[in-house]
Amino acid sequence: MKLVLASTSIYRKMLLERFLLPFETARPEVDETPRPGETPTATALRLAAEKAHAVACAFPDALIIGSDQVAHMGNEIFGKPGTIERAIDQLRRMRGNTVVFDTALALLDARSGRIQSECIPTRVRFRMLADGEIRRYVEKERPLDCAGSAKSEALGITLLDALSGDDPTALIGLPLIALSRMLRAEGIELP
Questions:
Q1: What is the pLDDT of residue 91?
Q2: In whole angstroms, what is the distance from residue 97 CA to residue 153 CA?
Q3: Alpha helix ranges (H) inside the chain
Q4: Domain residue spans in the chain?
Q5: Contact at 8 Å (CB) between 90 and 73?
Q6: Distance (Å, rounded) from C-alpha 71 to C-alpha 101?
């Protein structure tokens, strides 16, 4: 059965390549705006499913993977900053605090319409960062396309005091432990 990643994220693509399974990627056209009153977890789960459904028409015989991540501290949500100044501002707000990164995963069988979904939270405690550290980090790594403005898989790890969660790949954007469980449930053999 064909496998499709409903994402053009290079981070998610690199993670999925670890499974050594052939797959295609497709760009889902989905409005990622949280709905009024929606919790960060509910937003992440809804968007992961919407992304999978968004490409289903183009791949009616495929297993489609959708994923989304919402970083939040209380009710404050940290999206993809897009600019250096917004990334710096996000990191200033997060320094010395714990931020939860909810990474949702959805696996849609486009033939049957069956969907499996799960949200994997990762708690990330940021160090008390000086303004100079924040600016140097953002200028070196340019994490403008990452929720929360930090790449834990690269230089961003130096910004942290601790992180905890059930799946280290969830923080990067695609929870492979949950995905392997979902794929096995669909009959895909993984070692």
A1: 98
A2: 20
A3: 10-16, 40-56, 84-94, 131-141, 176-185
A4: 2-185
A5: no
A6: 4
For residue 181, the Cα-to-chain-centroid distance in whole angstroms is 18
Q: Which residues, 6+ apart, have CB-to-CB distance to 8 below 8 Å?
A: 25, 26, 27
Contact of 3 with 24, CB cutoff 8 Å: yes
d(CA 23, CA 7): 12
Helix-, strand-, coil-residue percentages of the chain, each rounded to 5? 35, 25, 40
Choose the catalytic residue: 31, 61, 68, 145: 68
Say whether pLDDT at 96 is over 90. yes
94, β-bridge pairs: none
Digit-coded pLDDT (tens) for 64-81: 999 999 999 988 999 999
Q: At residue 191, what is the residue type?
A: P
The identity of residue 83, as a single letter, is: T
Contact 28, 54 (CB under 8 A): yes
Tell me the whole-structure pTM to 2 decimals.
Answer: 0.94
Cα–Cα distance list, 8 to 15, 24, 98 (Å): 12, 10, 28
Average pLDDT value for the chain = 96
Q: Could you tell me which CATH number the domain at 2-185 has? A: 3.90.950.10
Q: Examine the residue annotation and report whether 68 is marked as an active-site residue of this protein.
A: yes
Question: Contact, 137 vs 120, CB < 8 A?
Answer: no
If pLDDT is split at 50, 70 and 90, which confidence band does 28 have?
very high
